[in-house]
Amino acid sequence: MLVALLSLLPFGFVALIAIQTGWTDAVALVLRPRVGELLVNTALLELCTLPPAIALAVATAWLTERTDLRFAPVWSWLAVAPLAVPAFVQSYAWTTLVPGMSGLGAATLVSVLAYSPFLYLPVAAQLRRLDPALEDAAASLGLDPWRVFFQVVLPQLRLGICGGSLLVALHLLAEYGLYALVRYDTFTTAIMDQFQSAYNAPAANMMGGVLVLCCMGLLWLESRIRGDERYARLGPGAARVAHRKPLGPWAIPSMAGLALAAALSLGVPSWIIARWLAIGGAEVWGPAVASALGETLLLSLAGAIVTTLAAAPMAWLSVRAPGRVQRMLEACHYYVGSLPGVVVGLALVAVTVRVALPLYQTVATLLIAYALLFLPRAMAGLRPSLAQAPVELERAAMALGRTPFQAVCAITLRLAAPGAAASIALVTLGAATELTATLMLAPSGTRTLATAFWSLTGEIDYAAAAPYAAAMVVASLPLTLVLHAQSRRISGR
């Protein structure tokens, strides 16, 4: 209950600021031309990024899962691998490769390359589970392959496309480093600029409120588009495995297209980082890199442990005692995870400055921010493992004289340990590359890989920033392997 209430802090912060500012001043701050400009920029970014990202993800998923494409497992892994490159590192690579790159076009290109894997994963997983009998029936009615795809296959991918699009859209709202480097103004960049220079609390806070409303609007829009249609297969037996369709003369162009996408999303960052490392030489690998790596591991691991412990009671309740109240509390965990780091940071800054000044810019506040931002990741790892721990074992332990608490600790927690480890790993890797909340809340003098990289890029010292970029990419690679393997395991392939 306490964690669920704490997760409502950003929403309460927005409401409190609106009340304290007053209706007249709040309306004046929200209806400023600057806010309208940022809304237009945000809408254009979403509209320009989502369609090409969806097209790229669906085409790649179709080629790797439903055709006889050579080396399909390799192409599948390459489609997911860009997740190992933080978005602001992608932007760093492209802006140093093309120094004049800026504006909406640059923001769209880098966003598509950085975030299309979030669409590829659910679409590919759904393609693997589709019943090919529906496609066979449509073909027997005289539909050509293209019409079968658009009238039968694509509608069944709605859930995967909607879920992936929501993830991408929320990341576009939350991202700071990518758009700051390509000089494209969004709500997050505007809030961070005010926070780091002449901090205007009412203006920044009201922009944070608009950003929260944008997030809630995206969640509502996704639920409306997704609908409540049934997608599960009915009837006896299991769906057969779909036969892979021959590409024929399209095999080479298909591989060329996938190779181009991999070169743009993986080749460019890898080459640029390697180039700057070569230019910097051994001097850039100083003690500061090891120190930043140590601080990153310490803070992210501590944040992961705190987040997993905070999520454990709710995960246990949702599995062992599901109900309306439990579902509402669980929803709080997921809603706060959809908010940008800058909103969570603003809320915690306001609370600590006003009512808990000794906690301002302390490790404790930073760990709370990590917990709020990554609660959904911890829940995703804990819930399945708790669900697979039979409740009968707990009852048997209590029948043998154990108290309920002892039974849970001795039986359930041991069985759920792999899920807890997965949660800690997922949160650790997310916290290691978190930029905005760390910049706003970390104690003075803290240098993580992300903040050190950002500081050096701000000084145009790209060679010195390269080791930090390389360390973040290497640290994120295990997450991409886990996501790729888990996606295939869940779909049964």
From TrEMBL:
<feature type="transmembrane region" description="Helical">
    <location>
        <begin position="331"/>
        <end position="351"/>
    </location>
</feature>
<feature type="transmembrane region" description="Helical">
    <location>
        <begin position="357"/>
        <end position="375"/>
    </location>
</feature>
<feature type="transmembrane region" description="Helical">
    <location>
        <begin position="250"/>
        <end position="277"/>
    </location>
</feature>
<feature type="domain" description="ABC transmembrane type-1">
    <location>
        <begin position="293"/>
        <end position="483"/>
    </location>
</feature>
<keyword id="KW-0997">Cell inner membrane</keyword>
<feature type="transmembrane region" description="Helical">
    <location>
        <begin position="42"/>
        <end position="63"/>
    </location>
</feature>
<keyword id="KW-1133">Transmembrane helix</keyword>
<keyword id="KW-0813">Transport</keyword>
<feature type="transmembrane region" description="Helical">
    <location>
        <begin position="420"/>
        <end position="442"/>
    </location>
</feature>
<dbReference type="GO" id="GO:0005886">
    <property type="term" value="C:plasma membrane"/>
</dbReference>
<dbReference type="InterPro" id="IPR035906">
    <property type="entry name" value="MetI-like_sf"/>
</dbReference>
<feature type="transmembrane region" description="Helical">
    <location>
        <begin position="462"/>
        <end position="483"/>
    </location>
</feature>
<comment type="similarity">
    <text>Belongs to the binding-protein-dependent transport system permease family.</text>
</comment>
<feature type="transmembrane region" description="Helical">
    <location>
        <begin position="100"/>
        <end position="121"/>
    </location>
</feature>
<feature type="domain" description="ABC transmembrane type-1">
    <location>
        <begin position="39"/>
        <end position="222"/>
    </location>
</feature>
<keyword id="KW-0812">Transmembrane</keyword>
<protein>
    <submittedName>
        <fullName>Iron ABC transporter permease</fullName>
    </submittedName>
</protein>
<keyword id="KW-1003">Cell membrane</keyword>
<feature type="transmembrane region" description="Helical">
    <location>
        <begin position="157"/>
        <end position="182"/>
    </location>
</feature>
<feature type="transmembrane region" description="Helical">
    <location>
        <begin position="297"/>
        <end position="319"/>
    </location>
</feature>
<dbReference type="GO" id="GO:0055085">
    <property type="term" value="P:transmembrane transport"/>
</dbReference>
<feature type="transmembrane region" description="Helical">
    <location>
        <begin position="75"/>
        <end position="94"/>
    </location>
</feature>
<dbReference type="InterPro" id="IPR000515">
    <property type="entry name" value="MetI-like"/>
</dbReference>
<keyword id="KW-0472">Membrane</keyword>
<dbReference type="Pfam" id="PF00528">
    <property type="entry name" value="BPD_transp_1"/>
</dbReference>
<feature type="transmembrane region" description="Helical">
    <location>
        <begin position="202"/>
        <end position="221"/>
    </location>
</feature>
